[in-house]
Write a structure and sequence with these properties.
15% strand; alpha/beta; 2 domains; 5-stranded parallel beta sheet; Rossmann fold
């Protein structure tokens, strides 16, 4: 059966555990020897492209990059025809897309012959969540993801696709997550990556004040206030989210030894200050390192089923 990795919610606990495990194994192997992976990017990214291409190479394969200008999903040709074309030449397509529905359409069009990896969509960012879990496990529990049970994590700012995947992953490991955001930027129930439906793991709490969210937590996480596609809302977002800026005063509300995560790119002076981002508590560069680890884990897991 062809494996896909498009959301955390649709991936079983056993499969997630396997992904976390194989992500950190020695990478001098031949998992993808002589095989290509298509990298389709409707939206640009430094870390996602670097992590994906490097991981493919480390597993013995080669990556082919396709930009939005080259493919033009549903503009130059339909997503279905793009999928059919890629399925004739590749076994795996890792895509960064504007609309999550693209994945289901490609799966249907190719008869489920092409494994798909979500490198970011409007619904979820699952490879980022895997990298975040690996980063936290490395810091708090010697790499054991099960050791994250009971960890207290706060996400502050605009609750986005990153927030959803992060919350689902951490809650299922038994970590407790608080999301601090204004009402119009807060998580809402529903969708394919829905933290509010996670049962039997950690607790999810939604609050409307940054200080309430971070008080006593072990981890503070934030992301850009102005994501791709909403640049015309920049001025309004800066006003609405000003009290959610992660600075030294906000970090002081967290538990002693609390660490900082940010999936990058950071807009210094908006959602985060230099003094925090560049502080000893910042794990952001380990997050970058583990973006590559995460891709290795997902690619290995996909190929294991063959």
């Amino acid at each position: 059966m062809t494996r896909h990795f498009t959301t955390i919610a649709e991936t079983s606990d056993d499969d997630l555990r396997r992904i976390y495990h194989v992500a950190l194994g020695a990478f001098d192997d031949t998992t993808l020897a002589g095989q290509g992976v298509a990298l389709v990017f409707e939206r640009p990214s430094l870390r996602t492209r670097a992590a994906s291409s490097t991981a493919v190479s480390e597993l013995g394969g080669f990556a082919t990059f396709f930009s939005d200008e080259e493919i033009g999903l549903d503009h130059r040709e339909s997503a279905e025809d793009v999928g059919r074309t890629l399925a004739e030449m590749y076994a795996i397509c890792a895509a960064r897309v504007r609309h999550h529905e693209i994945f289901a359409r490609m799966i249907a069009a190719t008869g489920d012959r092409l494994s798909l990896i979500n490198l970011l969509s409007d619904v979820a960012h699952p490879t980022q969540a895997v990298a975040d879990v690996l980063t936290l496990a490395e810091h708090f529990s010697s790499g054991d993801v099960a050791g994250l049970a009971g960890l207290r994590v706060a996400y502050v700012g605009d609750a986005t696709n990153v927030t959803r995947s992060l919350c689902v992953a951490l809650l299922r490991l038994g970590a407790h997550v608080t999301v601090g955001a204004p009402e119009n930027y807060q998580l809402v129930a529903g969708g394919l990556e829905d933290p509010t439906t996670v049962r039997g793991g950690g607790a999810l709490r939604l609050v409307d004040a940054a200080s309430d969210a971070v008080r006593g937590v072990d981890v503070v996480y934030t992301d850009a206030w102005v994501s791709m596609g909403v640049e015309d809302e920049t001025a309004q977002r800066r006003r609405d989210l000003a009290s959610f800026r992660v600075n030294s005063d906000l970090m002081a509300e967290a538990a002693p030894g609390a660490v900082l995560l940010h999936c990058l790119p950071a807009h210094r002076g908006d959602e985060i200050t230099d003094e925090v981002l560049d502080s000893p508590s910042s794990l952001v560069w380990r997050q970058v390192f583990h973006r590559r680890s995460a891709m290795r884990g997902v690619l290995r897991w996909i190929k294991e089923d063959e």
